[in-house]
Structures are given as C-alpha cells and as structure tokens.
C-alpha cells in the first residue's frame, strides 16, 4: 500500500505540474495576444490620425487655393500702385474688382452678405453707437452701417455693425454731437 500511495502522490504531483505548465502556456499565449492586439490598436490609431490629418488638409485645400489666388491679385494691385501705372479711375475699378473677387470667394463657401435693415434687428445687427433723436418715429432706426454683416447657411456669421437712433425728447441732435458709444 505504501507504493500505491507514493505512486498516487507522484501521479498527482505530475498532474499538478502538467496543470501548472498548461497555465503558464495559457498566460504566455494571452500575453502574446495582448501584445498583438496592442500593436493592432496602435496601427489603427495611427491610420485614423493620418486619415484625420488628410481629411483636414483636403477640406481646407479649396479655401487655401482661393485665398492664394486672391493674394496674387492683391500683389498685382500693389505692384501696379507702386509703378504708378494706373489712373485714379482705373485704381477705383481695380479696387472694386478685388472686392468683387473676395465676395466671390465667400460665395463659393456659402457665405453671403446680409441685407441691411432700416430698423434695428438684434438677431442680425449689433449697435455700436447711439444717436439720440427728438422724433419718436426714428426710434431704433438704423442711421449708418459701419460694417456689413454676413451669414452662412441661414445663420449669422458676423452681425452687421450699425449706428442706431433712439428717441429721447429734449436730447435729440441732428449731427453726431451727443452720440453715445455702446
């Protein structure tokens, strides 16, 4: 019986040793899988970063090319002014051409100038200055447009900056005297 017990202990030690070796093999296999998985994730993240960088470049490229064309036009205009090759009328026409070219660049990006309004509109205008009036009918009337407003996709991109009139009896003025800054 003593040998059977020893044989049984050897068998269970041998089985235990095999089980431990099997566990070591499983841990090694899992470790290799984790390493491979990490490499795969790293490769995917790098590829995603490259796609993102390329996407941004491709999205900006048309705008940047348009800006470069406008830059070329500005350089031509500057050189013409320096060489004094243009009469005042041609200078005015050329400058208007530059403005039109820039507006075309904005149109291609769905950026449109907003229509001016005679009455102050808080949604699309920003009051920069107030001029007081004795005439109640001129309350909130736009007196002057300082900067044109622009919208994109029906949303205000930049509000129109205006001078408005406000009704205040006894404080009204006909000129800019007594005007208040906002």
Would you write up a description of this structure?
- The structure is a single chain.
- This protein is of the alpha+beta class.
- It has 2 domains: 1-109, no CATH class; 111-181, Roll (Nucleotide Exchange Factor Grpe, Chain A, domain 2).
- Helix content is 55%, strand content 19%.
- The protein contains 2 helices and 7 strands; from the N terminus they run ααβββββββ.
- The protein has helices at 2-82, 88-107; strands spanning 111-113, 125-133, 142-147, 150-152, 155-158, 160-167, 180-181.
- A 4-stranded mixed sheet has the order 3-6-2-7, with no helix packed on it. A 3-stranded antiparallel sheet has the order 1-4-5.
- The chain is elongated and about 110 Å long.
- The chain starts with a helix and ends with a strand.
- Residues 1-5 have low confidence and may be disordered.
What is the structural class? alpha+beta
Beta-strand percentage range: 15-25%
Question: How many individual β-strands?
Answer: 7
Question: DSSP helix count?
Answer: 2
Straight-line distance between termini: 107 Å
| Overall form | elongated
Number of domains: 2
Query: How much helical structure, as a percent, in the residues?
Result: 55-70%
User: Which oligomeric state applies?
Assistant: single chain
- H/E element string? HHEEEEEEE
Q: Taking Cα atoms only, what radius of gyration do you get, to the nearest Å?
A: 38 Å
Please list the strands of the largest sheet in the order they lie side by side. 3-6-2-7
Low-confidence stretches: 1-5
* Major sheet details: 4 strands, mixed
Mean pLDDT: 87
